[in-house]
Write a structure and sequence with these properties.
This protein is mostly beta strands and 218 residues long. The chain has one domain (15-193): outer membrane lipoprotein receptor (LolB), chain A. The chain has helices spanning 7-17, 37-48, 119-122, 128-131, and strands at residues 52-60, 66-74, 78-83, 89-94, 97-102, 107-112, 132-135, 142-147, 158-164, 172-180, 186-196. Strands 6-5-4-3-2-1-11-10-9-8-7 form an eleven-stranded antiparallel β-sheet. β10 and β11 form a beta hairpin. The longest helix has 12 residues, at 37-48. It starts with 6 loop residues before the first helix and ends in a 22-residue tail after the last strand.
């Protein structure tokens, strides 16, 4: 039977969240608003202050194709993107590697966390403060941090966008991020309905391997 899931959309999911990207400009920015080292420190503190989090997400590729789902995060290094019904894919990190499972074609792909743009969120060895820089946003309530290692462009580039929110860890809430795939195609992931400090068992970050007839969790 011919796969029914969109091939371009499948590629966008893999490219934006898993495959490493070369150094690239992400998007033009508005005129600068005064921002300084303090905002970078607060952004780092906001990331480190998240122990667990769930949020609804939408992911939009450069052609405007959008998929939705629920993201679950647990530090250090664990994340799960559960896509909406009709999208037969799962993206999960167990703290060491990112795994993309495609249940429609029974394929599993795996990458070290450090080789994903999401390493800025997940890799405990990735120093966001060292490799991140503030990007002017034109809005004093929005903080944008671009993370890339110029010596290791294969690790990818990601821009993290925070909004000031006193209820969020560190006073900044991660609102969205922009990643670039190997062809310099931009994809945006937007978060909403953030829930912090929720109970998240480690079993959340396992998956059923479609290549195994036993279907045992990995």
């Amino acid at each position: 039977m011919k796969p029914i899931f969109s091939i371009p959309l499948r590629a966008a999911i893999a490219g934006a969240l898993v495959v490493s990207a070369p150094a690239a400009m992400i998007a033009p920015v508005a005129p600068a608003v005064a921002q300084g080292q303090g905002d970078l420190d607060r952004a780092v503190a906001a990331l480190r202050g998240i122990s667990t989090m769930k949020a609804d997400f939408t992911q939009t590729d450069r052609k405007g194709q959008t998929v939705a789902g629920v993201m679950t995060l647990k530090r250090p290094g664990k994340i799960r993107f559960q896509y909406e019904k009709g999208v037969p894919m799962l993206l999960v990190s167990n703290g060491k590697s990112m795994t993309l499972i495609d249940y429609e074609v029974n394929q599993v792909q795996r990458w070290p966390i450090k080789e994903s743009p999401l390493g800025a969120l997940l890799d405990p060895n990735r120093d966001v403060k060292r490799y991140g820089k503030l990007i002017p946003t034109g809005n004093a309530d929005v903080v944008s941090v671009e993370v890339r290692d110029p010596k290791k462009p294969e690790f990818g580039v990601i821009r993290l966008i925070f909004v000031r929110n006193s209820a969020a860890p560190g006073g900044l809430q991660l609102a969205n991020w922009v990643a670039v795939d190997a062809q310099n195609h931009q994809t945006t992931v937007r978060l909403r309905n953030h829930r912090y400090g929720v109970s998240v068992p480690d079993s959340t970050f396992t998956y059923k391997d479609p290549r195994r007839s036993s279907r045992r969790p990995r």
